[in-house]
Amino acid sequence: MIQEFKKIWKQYAIGMLWLLGLLWPMLGIHSDGTLTFKTTLTVWSYILAGSFVCLLIYIMKAGGILKSITDPVTRVAGNIKTAATLLPTWIWIIAVLVFALLYPQFAGRYGTDVAVSVLLYICLGLGLNVVVGLAGMLDLGYIAFYGVGAYTYALFNTVYGLAFWVCLPLSAASACLAGCIVGYPTLRMRGDYLAIVTLGFGEIIRIILNNWMSVTNGPNGILGIKPISIFLPVFENGFTFEHFWVKKLQLFYYFALALAIVAAIGVQRLNFSRVGRAWESIREDETAAELMGVNTFIYKLLAYAMGAVFAGLAGAFFAARMRFVSPESFTFLESAMVLCMVVLGGMGSIPGIILGVIALIALPEVFREFEAYRMLIFGATMIIMMLFRPAGLIPAKRVGSRSEEMEG
Length: 408
Fold this sequence. Notes:
Blueprint (H helix, E strand, L loop, with lengths): L1 H26 L10 H25 L4 H20 L2 H18 L2 H26 L8 H18 L3 H23 L4 H21 L1 H4 L5 E2 L5 E6 L5 E6 L3 H23 L2 H11 L1 H6 L4 H27 L1 E2 L6 H14 L4 H17 L7 H15 L14 H5 L1
Antiparallel strand pairs: 1-4, 2-3
Helix pairs in contact: 1-2, 5-10, 5-13, 5-14, 5-15, 6-7, 6-8, 6-13, 7-13, 10-13, 11-13, 14-15
C-alpha cells in the first residue's frame, strides 16, 4: 500500500493544487473588487477530504487489502446479472415502457418537464450516434440540423399555416437536405480535419439563422408558433372529428416518448442492417473498407443525412413545444453537450446513450443546489469516465470477434 501511494502522491498533490488555483478566481473574486479566501478554502477542503478517501480506497483495492469485501460483492453482482439475463429481453422492454407510460401520473409538473427534455435529447443523442458511434465520424456541428428542423416548422407554420403533422416530415426532409449539402464537400476529409470543418459549417448555419432578418427574423426569433394539434372523434349529434390544440404537459411528454421510441427503433434497425455493417467497417478501418468494395463516401453521406433526419424531427417538436425559436438555442455548446452524452453513455450503444442523457440532463436537476459548480463537476466526471471507463457507461457489444481477440 505504501509503495502504491508513493507512485501517485506527487500527481495527486499537483492536481489538488491546480484545483485550488482554479477554484479561487471562481469563488474568491467578487464583483465589487474584493478578494476572499475563506469560501474557496472551505470548498477545496471538502473536495480534498472526499478525494483523499477515494484515493485511499483505490490504493487499498490495488494492494489487495479490500479483497475480502470486493470478492463477495463481485459474486453477488454476477449472480444478479445472471438472474437478470434469465428473463427475455422483451420482458425488460415492456417493463421500461410501462414505467415510462405511467411516469407522468406520479411525477409532478417539474418532473414531467425534465422528462420531456430528457426524451428530446435522447432523440438527438441517437441521431448523433449514427454519425459518431456507427460511422465513426466526429461531428461538432450536429446541432445545426436541430435548428434547421425547428425553423422549418416555425416558418411553414407561421407563414403558410401548415399543421405540425404536415411539417414534421418536411422538417426531417429539410434537415436531411441540409446534411447532404453540408456533407458532400465535407466528408471527403477524415479525423481532426472533418471535426473542424463540421464545426465551421454548424456555425455557418447558426450565423445564417441569426442574420437573415427577412426570413428568420434574426436574433429576435420567431414567435406565435402553433403547438401540436390532434383530431379526436366526437359522437355527439353524429360522428365527427373535433380539433384540439395540445396544451397539457403530459401530452407533450407522450409525444416526446413516441419520438424517442421511433428514433431508438430506427437506429437499432439501421445498426443491424447491411448499411450498419458498412458503417461499422468504415468506423474500424476506412481504407480496408474501401478496398473491400464499400463506397465509403456514399455510406458516410448516408450516415450524415440519417443523423440529420433525427435532429430535424426533434427540432420540429422543440419548436411546437416552446412556440418560439431563436438562434441562441442552437449554439456550439449544445453540440458539445449532445456529443458528451454519446461518449459518456457509450458510442454505438442505445441503452448507453439513454443513460448518458439521463446523467447529463436529469441528474443536474436533482443536484440543482450545486448549480454554481455544475460545469466543474461535469468536467471532472468526464475526466474520471475517460480514465476508468473509456468505452462509456454501457459500451456497445461487438457482433462476432476479431482474429487477434480469439488468439489472445
